[in-house]
Write a structure and sequence with these properties.
With 83 residues, this protein is mainly alpha-helical. Helices cover 55% and strands 0% of the residues.
Length: 83
């Protein structure tokens, strides 16, 4: 959710919802910039490697299979990470 607030607006004039949106936007921008910088500095662990043909075939097959979707609740219970 991006909101446009004039630069001349004082914090005291913002509603709580507008203030939260501004803070959320700032945090998202900072995190996005930090992730981008880290991605630029970290080496690509797959650089120079090729997919094995059998793995590529399995990926293609999986992409064409229709499987029933499960809910997030079911998945968290299955993995044992539910509250």
């Amino acid at each position: 959710m991006s909101i446009k607030i004039p630069d001349s607006t004082k914090l005291i004039d913002l509603t709580l919802g507008e203030f939260k949106a501004v803070v959320r936007t700032i945090v998202e921008d900072v995190v996005q910039d930090a992730v981008f910088e880290l991605e630029q500095e970290l080496p690509d662990p797959d650089a120079g490697k090729e997919l094995r043909s059998e793995f590529a075939d399995r990926l293609r097959q999986a992409a064409h299979e229709e499987k029933a979707l499960i809910s997030l609740e079911s998945l968290t219970k299955e993995l044992g990470v539910d509250d």
